[in-house]
Amino acid sequence: MRQRKHTSIDALHRIVIVGGGAGGLELATRLGDTLGKRGLAQVTLIEKARTHFWKPHLHEIAAGTVDLNTHAVDYLAQSHWHCFRYRMGEMTGLDRVRREVHVAPFIDPDEGEEVAGQRVFVYDTLVIAVGSLNNDFGTPGVQEHAILLETPAQAERFHRRLVNACVRAHAQTAPLRPEQLQVAIIGAGATGVELAAELHQTTRTLVSYGLDRIDPERDIRLNLIEAGPRILGALPERMSASARALLEELNVRVRTNARVTAVTGTGVQLASGETIPAELVVWAAGVKAPEFLAQLDGLETNRINQLVVHPTLQTTHDANVFAIGDCAAAPWLGREGTVPPRAQVAHQHASHLVKQIRRRLLDQPLQPWRYRDFGSLVSLGKYSTVGNLMGSLIGGSLWIEGLFARWMYQSLYKLHELALHGTWKTVLGTAARFLARPTLPTVKLH
Ligand SMILES: Cc1cc2nc3c(=O)[nH]c(=O)nc-3n(C[C@H](O)[C@H](O)[C@H](O)COP(=O)(O)OP(=O)(O)OC[C@H]3O[C@@H](n4cnc5c(N)ncnc54)[C@H](O)[C@@H]3O)c2cc1C
Fold first, then answer.
1. What kind and span of H or E run contains 148?
2. pTM for the model
3. Mean pLDDT across the chain, nearest whole number?
4. 292-306 tens-digit pLDDT
5. Nearest CA to ligand 1 atom 29
6. Alpha-carbon span 163 to 180, nearest angstrom
7. DSSP letter string over 183-196?
């Protein structure tokens, strides 16, 4: 097949960003607004999806409490407004000597037709920001029977299946089968915990919309299953205890020290030999970076496929290639190990690289990136938000919960919106959603 090199403005420094998520899209937007707009560099974003959705809200799509269409950002329009180029496609390879990114043909998943062929993009600076995936650790049955929450399409699919399960149970005259209306969430990190609380709220709302043959307390069971000794294992113990107490108050069955050995069409098997019946299974455990990174022309990766980077966010084997966000194993300066895969890390990486790429163009030495830990917050739907604020910044942590915590939790998304849209558009978008709220059901029904 004939390959075309995409190098229209050869004189300019070519910045190619792969992955338009929490980190990559902020970076492309801000570099486009500065360098792209003034003609100082050509900024290209390669992304395999058509629209961007901020991943920390995916569990709310799954529960139906957030509508994808009101929050999705169209890459093509965003690139037009912010002076960068968007090229749809999936990066599959790299040639570091020729400085080429290889992109697979883009096939429309619904129509099956080829939209764009195989392509090669030449770069002077490459930033890889392809995020992470769930790690099923090879557990049998996960790919066939469980739903993963990695993309908006998967979250929407889960929501459809949840609504279908409720409508089916309501319509049926025969007694419910043991697995019917039972949900198993595997992995009690922030995603699993937040999803459990959100689903409690959603199922009650759905039933209140007229599915009155279902008694939520009797018929619906939410199981949260965790292999480790406590939920929210990566977060402070107080958060874990507080979240568990609230979930148990909501009648969520929390199982710790429970390792899943297989997922079947009717439930989940545990290492203890016990089976938990479940009609809907969500796999929210483990994190790994996409596998293609481990074969990326000799770049160094760790055991979960993250690209190993220096404090400058340059990959260890190639100073022209940077990695940011979840796919980067970035050192946590002043502490042991690497920074966690979080939205605030991706946001800070993007902000740092905006300045560093400008320095690179001026041939100035790059500065190291330092993680500023603003703490962790976990939203338990409408019931509560708990967390610790400021983390290492104040040399300790400040416990917060309730409305203030909810507001702080939402502010992380506002920061992302501000980086993408600026102040006015963010204010207008927030106001429009607020005003439209009374006209919409509180839970999406389709
Ligand atoms: C359900 C859920 C809830 C979460 N909740 C929180 C939370 O409350 N707080 C928090 O801090 N973090 C949370 N996280 C983690 C947070 O979403 C991530 O840390 C953050 O999105 C990482 O940003 P990123 O830019 O590295 O990757 P992403 O935001 O994942 O973006 C990666 C992008 O790369 C694209 N891509 C992937 N592979 C390719 C390829 N080969 N070629 C082209 N494009 C590609 C993807 O389509 C995607 O758009 C949550 C994650 C999930 C899944």
1. strand 147-148
2. 0.92
3. 91
4. 999 999 999 999 999
5. 21
6. 12
7. EEEE--SHHHHHHH
Question: Which atom of ligand 1 is closest in space to residue 345's alpha carbon?
Answer: 19
244 Cβ contact partners less than 8 Å away, ≥ 6 residues apart: 230, 231, 254
Structural domains of the chain in order of their starting residue, each with its CATH number: 9-132+289-361 (3.50.50.60), 142-285 (3.50.50.60), 375-439 (no CATH)
The CA 25 to ligand 1 mean position distance, Å, reads: 11
d(CA 350, CA 427): 22
Q: Read off the DSSP letter of residue 423.
A: H
pLDDT of residue 395: 57
Task: Tell me which residue of 68, 169, 175, 136 sits closest to 183, measured CA to CA.
Answer: 169
Ligand 1 centroid to Cα of residue 213, in Å, is 39
Q: In degrees rounded to 5, what are phi and psi of residue 65?
A: -90, -10
- For a substitution probing ligand 1, which of 51, 53, 55, 158 has the most ligand atoms within 8 Å of its CB? 55
Residues having CB closer than 6 A to ligand 1 are 18-24, 46-49, 55-56, 58-59, 90-91, 129-131, 149, 190-191, 290, 325-327, 341-344, 346
